[in-house]
Amino acid sequence: MPDEFLSEARLKAALGERPFRFHEQVGSTNDLAQRWALDGAPAGAVVVAEEQVAGRGRFGRTWLAPAGTALLFSVILRPQIRAERLARLTMVGAVAVAETVMGMAPGQVRLKWPNDVWLAGHKVAGILPEAIWLGSDLQAIVLGIGVNVSMDFAGTALADSATSIETVTGQHVDRAALLAAILGRIDAWTARLEEPALLETWRGWLATLGRRVTATAPGEQIDEQISGEALDVDDSGALLLRVDDGSVRRIVSGEVTLAD
Ligand code: BTN
To answer: Which residue owns the Cα nearest ligand 1 atom 16?
Structure first.
């Protein structure tokens, strides 16, 4: 059951002094946040939409969510961080969502490398970080997050892979309060971006480690599929995979499916 629709007033009540822009319908909140970031939006500013008509996921995929059933937002961050450590922002988003959803469904939340949030074994949220560069200077990161809140995926093509918080918990979720809680965790972890605790916490949530997986790594012409045992992640967030000839491959970007 969709909750009451979001509004400026509800978001203002939940977000307090945080700068935000709310739209009933947008192409992609990430696009609006990028423009706002270039116009000087402060760190922590957030774009929220009730519906996206061109929502995007990783690797140029479409991100679909019927109006009112999801929490769709993009938060602008302005971290001082080297390019090779940008995966830390993905960790911030994934850990922030996982910690927040865990409060509603204890013991049922995991992460699938690198940044899918799982609830009861199905994807409940995805994260799309996008960096804005001026030459070699990082201007901002737009952290786009979509959380399935009330969508019932039963009978849809995604029934086996996706779920929503309300489907699992049977409890109504106030999306404005959910947003405020996730943003609070994002603030807290952004302040600890370079600390080992962020990597350790993210690693602790990963369902992938120790499992046999198939990683799909994007290639220039075709994607490469690599199967093996997920041994660990390294400091930059890359997945270390022991492949069948015994060597260890470092997978920097891509996604994994669990083989068992
Ligand atoms: C993924 O799992 O592939 C990432 C999905 C990210 C979706 C969110 S919804 C809000 C923001 N705006 C977008 O266009 N995408 C992200």
So the answer is: 144
Which atom belonging to ligand 1 lies closest to the Cα atom of 115?
Answer: 2
pLDDT tens profile 23-55: 999 999 999 999 999 999 999 999 999 999 999
> Is the link from the previous residue into 42 a cis peptide, with omega within 30 of 0?
no
Residue type, 12: K
Centre of ligand 1 to C-alpha 245, Å, is 36
**How far, in Å, from the CA of 235 to the mean position of ligand 1?**
25
Distance between Cα 63 and ligand 1 center (Å): 6
Write out pLDDT tens, residues 51-109. 999 999 998 899 999 999 999 999 999 999 998 899 999 999 999 999 999 999 999 99
Match domain 212-258 to its CATH number in 3.60.9.10, 3.40.140.10, 2.30.30.100, 3.30.70.920. Answer: 2.30.30.100
* Ligand 1 proximity of 167 Cβ (cutoff 6 Å): no
How many other C-beta atoms can be found within 10 angstroms of the C-beta atom of residue 56? 19
In testing the pocket of ligand 1, which one of 51, 53, 116, 128 has its CB within 8 Å of the most ligand atoms?
128
pTM for the structure as a whole: 0.95
Instruction: Please state which CATH class domain 8-205 belongs to.
Output: alpha beta
